[in-house]
Amino acid sequence: MQTLLVPLDASASTPKVLNHAEGLARALPARVVLLHVVEPVATYVPVGAAMDVIATAPPPIEEGETEGAKQRIEQLAAPLRSKGIDVACEAVLGLAVDEIIEQAKTLAADYIVLGSHGHGALYHLFSGSVVTGVLKHSPCPVIVVPVGN
To answer: Which residues of 119-148 are buried (b: 16+ CB within 10 A; e: fewer)?
Structure first.
């Protein structure tokens, strides 16, 4: 049995990505591993900022915060399980690209299935793209589900 790693970001694209993963899981057959990466929030404190600005910076994300993400992923897995698909769920803390690649290696995934949001070139120039990062570093084939407009 093959393994599909399906990173999800709980956006509007999630149902479409899950639909494609379900079809692939049935066709191959494969088990599905749903993954949600909880990314730490970067904080910016200007040089010379007053102590009140520094004191109001948001707290760092704690490991326990992945539990809520895992519960949401478990809810998404339920319909797949009810259709007889073998589904596992993971929620990890880290940077999306790094964690997706790490999980793909750890699981010996046969495919990664993820959605592309279809942001414009200017967006990607400044923020980069999870899809691009995964494509560059993936240890296995990547299936990109177009979910734009």
So the answer is: eeeeeeeeeeebbebbeeebebebeebebe
106-118 confidence digits (pLDDT tens): 999 999 999 886 5
| Helix, strand, or coil (residue 101) | helix
What span, in angstroms and rounded, lies between the C-alpha atoms of 147 and 71?
A: 24
Partnered with residue 143 across adjacent β-strands are 113
Question: What values do phi and psi take at 107, rounded to 5?
Answer: -85, -10
CATH code given to domain 2-146: 3.40.50.620
94 C-beta neighbours (distance < 10 Å), count:
16
